[in-house]
């Protein structure tokens, strides 16, 4: 999540953009032509409409054709069918934001709750299974989450720290007092105040470390999960990842959403995540400050947070799909 920015493509109305996108459904790769839906043989909808006023930020997709999104407004969780575009709210929010979220194979959603810590929601029933206060430090902004087999990791945009929820045998959730704080050091230099620092989080291809993007300064850090020592990932001559937001790792390919740029930068990483090579940039005329990204069957799905548009109960929101 990041501050607001100037509107993208101000000469086109949102209705005209969505109509054009539904017809073409093509992501434009830098330096290449877009691919139409007909040419790609794509049958799943390229635009998934969310309830008016929903204010999405995080997205996660499990093994089935369903995307889960959290609301920055009241924290509700929405499930969308990727085959039809239809969906519904499965968990009414507590009245506080839901930011990043991730689904585990047990059907549990781990949700970052900005200043309210984190919670775990049953994706089938919508029931809140547990809530956690991640820190007593202020200000705090639990922004994104990444799951391993043993730990749920949360970033804090306002503190130089990661928070770890250790998972027990068979994924047992920890007690409220079991939250661990890992202070970031090494190459990490925290920008003070309520500035977005730590944001998207993922693992390295070999699973030995974590990757965290520092939005305000555009750096990608490799983090030792035991010590919190970070090293900047060597991305060669690639431009800084300013306003970097959600991260998605598939194999050794890392997708970095840059919300202000309405773009995804794609890198091929070394196995240990210490370096990477820029591959390409993905853009689309329908992007309207996308924040996070998830994948399903060769396509990427990004919620438009629309931070440049004043939110009202009638403001429209959607998820945009592009080829991976």
Order of helices and strands: HEHEEEEEEEEEEEEEEEEEEEEEEEEE
Average pLDDT for all residues: 89
Gyration radius, rounded? 18 Å
**What is the overall shape?**
globular
Q: What gap, in angstroms, lies between the N and C termini?
A: 22 Å
Please work out how many helical segments DSSP would assign.
2
Strand order in the largest sheet: 1-23-22-21-20
Helical content band? under 10%
Give the strand tally: 26
> What composes the largest sheet?
5 strands, antiparallel
Going by helix content, strand content and strand pairing, the class is mainly beta
Q: How would you explain this protein's 3D organization?
A:
There is one protein chain. By secondary structure, the protein is mostly beta strands. 5% of the residues lie in helices and 41% in strands. It has helices at 14-24, 37-40; strands spanning 28-29, 47-50, 56-61, 66-71, 77-81, 87-91, 101-103, 108-112, 118-122, 128-132, 142-147, 151-156, 161-166, 180-183, 185-186, 198-203, 210-214, 219-223, 229-232, 244-250, 253-258, 263-269, 276-283, 294-296, 299-303, 317-323. The strands form 6 sheets. A 5-stranded antiparallel beta sheet has the order 1-23-22-21-20, with no helix packed on it. Strands 15-19-18-17-16 form a 5-stranded mixed beta sheet, with no helix packed on it. Strand 22 and strand 23 form a beta hairpin. It is globular. The two termini are 22 Å apart. The relative contact order is 0.17.
